[in-house]
Amino acid sequence: VQLQASGGGLVQAGDSLRLSCTASGNTFNLYGMGWFRQTPGKEREFVAGIHWSTSTIFYGDSVKGRFLISRGDASNPIYLTMNSLKPEDTALYFCAARYSGRGSFDSVQSYGYWGQGTQVTVSS
């Protein structure tokens, strides 16, 4: 599967933004998908993930209660709605896919497929 995140931009603190993940290829045998983010010099951070067959959802602690991961169709399988954005949410956001059940949803190593990121910048 090929992935591409989009929808990023420059917003003010308190604003909302919705990211999309466009997919081409097989999305029918997925084990799950997720969103991660990364800032320069830091490791990629787990944002949210969803188990494909049960729709069980996981969130990183820093975004719980503010961000929402949701499913779409085969072409846009997941979205990330970000509310009450803070300057510390500024990062390059990636969507990722996994076909294996090995590893936890919050681990980068659990995902085998990554899209190019989309930049989100939140000004104070």
TL;DR of this structure?
The protein is mainly β and 124 residues long.
How would you portray this structure in words?
The protein has 124 residues and is mainly β. Helices cover 0% and strands 48% of the residues. It is built from no helices and eleven strands. The strands form two sheets. Strands 2, 4, 5, 6, 9, 10 and 11 form a seven-stranded mixed beta sheet that branches. The protein starts with a strand and ends with a strand.
Q: Give the rounded overall mean pLDDT.
A: 96
- Count up the helices: 0
What radius of gyration results from the CA coordinates? 13 Å
What is the percent of helical residues? under 10%
Assign the structural class, choosing from mainly alpha, mainly beta, alpha/beta, alpha+beta, or little secondary structure: mainly beta
The strand count comes to 11
Tell me what portion of residues adopts beta-strand conformation: over 45%
Main sheet record: 7 strands, mixed
Globally, the shape reads: globular
Following the backbone from N to C, one meets helices and strands in this order, namely: EEEEEEEEEEE
- The termini sit apart by 37 Å
Unreliable runs: none
